[in-house]
Amino acid sequence: MDGLLGRGGFRDAVFARDGGACVVCGAPAQDAHHIMERRLFTDGGYYLDNGASLCGEHHLLAETTELSVEDVREAAGIPESRAVLPEHLYKGRYDKWGNPILASGLRAKGELFGDPSVRKALGAGGALGLFRDHAKYPRTYHLPSSPGAGRGDRVLRDASALKGAEVVATVKMDGENTSIYRDHVHASSLDGGRHESRWPAWELQARVGHELPEGWRVCGENLYAREARTPTRSILGRGDCGG
């Protein structure tokens, strides 16, 4: 990832790189467009490789997601290896507003989906009909001193916000993250199939799913499968829950 720029420096750097022209059509640029929405970043996302010079027409198409983030990056000459994502998102495909794009081409609801301005932009581009009602469980961050943080885990850079606050410690069983809805079950991936290790979760949903209010989701750890010959109990853990 290239260095973080200020707001004015971002516009100047993006326009300088692109010669002041829209990277899509070559018309005079009007906007230094954030390829991934700046509100998804804790630092504002003012990175050169998260910017592209766009004319008014193509800026609107990018905002409504009719022009994909991949199309914008390619037009700006930004290779996927330099694609800038907010650090709390998993690697994968997203639209401009941080909504995950599934292998089927449908989309899952991201953290900004409920924002009126985001829904207005998605509606203007006709994308609202592409969304499923299910959502990917977000990353859980490790504390800076956590001994259990692995290579692919996210770690808090600074835990000072916890100073003086009440902290409740719970035991989290380590299994496969599972989300149960009124009408559906999925693991970490929304595209996952019905593997035999997920049968207990599907059976649980069949028993209690009708009791969940519309739009609610219960999250937990599926501990049915075995890993590295370590026996586990056939239960759905209570490590996480929410609605």
Overview in brief:
The protein is α+β, with helices and mostly antiparallel strands.
Structure description:
The chain has 243 residues and is an alpha+beta fold. The protein has a domain at 7-130. Helices cover 19% and strands 8% of the residues. The protein is built from 5 helices and 5 strands, in the order H-E-E-H-H-H-E-E-H-E. It has helices spanning 7-17, 56-63, 69-76, 116-124, 199-208; strands spanning 31-34, 51-54, 176-180, 185-186, 218-222. Strands 4-3-5 form a 3-stranded antiparallel β-sheet, with helices on one face. Strands 1-2 form a two-stranded antiparallel sheet. A hairpin with a 4-residue loop joins strand 3 (176-180) and strand 4. It is globular, with a radius of gyration of 21 Å. Mean pLDDT is 85; it is low at 229-243.
